[in-house]
Automatic annotation (TrEMBL):
Top-level lineage group: Bacteria
Protein name: 3'-phosphoesterase
InterPro entries with a match to the protein in the record: LigD_PE_domain
Stretches that traverse the bilayer: none
UniProt-listed PANTHER family: DNA LIGASE D 3'-PHOSPHOESTERASE DOMAIN-CONTAINING PROTEIN, DNA LIGASE D, 3'-PHOSPHOESTERASE DOMAIN
Every DNA ligase D 3'-phosphoesterase domain range: 10-122
Amino acid sequence: MPAAPIFVVQLHDARRLHYDLRLEVDGVLKSWAVPRGPSLDPTVKRLAVFTTDHSIEYAEYEGVIEGSQYGSGAVIVWDAGVYQNLTADKQRLVDPATAIDRGHFKFRLQGVKLAGVFALTRTERDWLLVKVRDDDADPLLDLTVTEPRSILSGLTIEEMAATES
């Protein structure tokens, strides 16, 4: 049985602070920049901007990207784990790459911080990330506030930025 695909959420302090949601699909990390981070409230729709694919190895990257080029700044691994594809068409699973191409991808996260079902849906311009109503939904809990530290190093984004010398 193949291993479950991975996901990672990296907090990235580039031109603007944002969360990068990355999902393993066909050997790469499909990536969305989520400016306000994931929400556990099913009534909240978060903007998710589709970005370039990253290598699987990038899932463990933490540090400070030097210089002034696009993407420079501090990065921490805010959450990570595995996910299960739940995208179905006529009760048959649709593979993740096809789901993304079609503009709707539903998946269950099993991470250190995030759990439960989420969906990414393409709009005219970008994507929306939404928490699906399930036992893991919690409109009163904002993990971006209560859980600011890296799951790997234990550092906050500010502490990681301060390591640049």
